[in-house]
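Ticket #367: bound-state structure for zinc ion.
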Amino acid sequence: MSGTETIAKGAQQPGRPRQQAIAIGGIEVAPGKRAVVDLPVTDLSTHTPMTMPIQVVHGRSAGPRLFVCAALHGDEINGVEVIRRLLRLSALKRLRGTLIAVPIVNVLGFVSQSRYLPDRRDLNRSFPGSPRGSLTARLARIFIDEVVGKSTHGIDLHTGAIHRENFPQVRGNLDDPETERLARAFGVPVVINTGFRQGSLREAAAQRAVPVIVYEAGEALRFDEACIRAGVKGIVRVMRQLEMLPPSQRPKKERRSLIIRSSKWVRAPQSGLLRSTTALGSQVQQGDLLGVIGDPFGEKVMEVCSPADGVVIGRCNLPLAHEGDALFHIARHEGTQVVARSLDAFEPEAEYEVGLTSELTDDPPIV
Ligand SMILES: [Zn+2]
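RESOLUTION: The complex was predicted; output attached.
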């Protein structure tokens, strides 16, 4: 779509607070309208203007204002597809509150397939930014002012770095009850309780009292159907939890997430070629073999073993390793039965739910 479109005709829902217009990037979106805002970011050296595309879906009734953003790291593209599918849902016609969808935050990194901006800074270490700082700091500040500052909640979509794949997981500061509510509602088996990294979007949003969860799944520069589906379904569950979307007609399935408080990267004990023998999402015990690393002649072979009981939530998919490279990310836990239950209940490949996300099945799955 381009321009503004009406999402719902007629009066606002009775008994709901009256919705006001919302202005993003100087564009005013009236209640019951859906609009694309091209937020000016900077000019390229070619004189071409660069903008950040935002779609605002502004319900007729007032309610939570949720931003969902992706590609803060320009090469983490799974979330872009999650947002494309989310925006196709016809249930958004009955949205309460506001959805601010930003599929590509780091527009400059995205076009150059890079995690970073052209000034080689990491956007997710540059919040809250400054209008007089580096290019990255300026972009961070625009996002804070125009998106985070207009929202009550947020979901930030990421993947592993290049050649690193993450098992679908949610991260957030669970010491904050509202963040915990979002993290549990998302419904993936692993939830990691993490503090704030300095300069991250999560930290800057928390300072403005906007709870944000991060969904991490898949690998940079790749689409992963299971991770995309789990992402769409997770966001819909959060929106239902916030009563932005009508509740599911189907009986509620119990989804228990495993809350992880500590994790550890297992590093290569020597340089060589890694033959990984443990799949992402596997449950492992201390001392279990994760893979072997050896030279091209099959000599000097060393085993790589798990230092703790846990779940493999991240893995390096590149077999070429230098000594010290991070190979496997283990989420530590005690209590293997809880883990087994939460992993068993997770069916990322499963069909979309009847009645809401089922309409997305017209799209052939990405294989
Ligand atoms: Zn990232």
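RESOLUTION NOTES: The two ends are 27 Å apart (CA to CA).
TICKET STATUS: resolved
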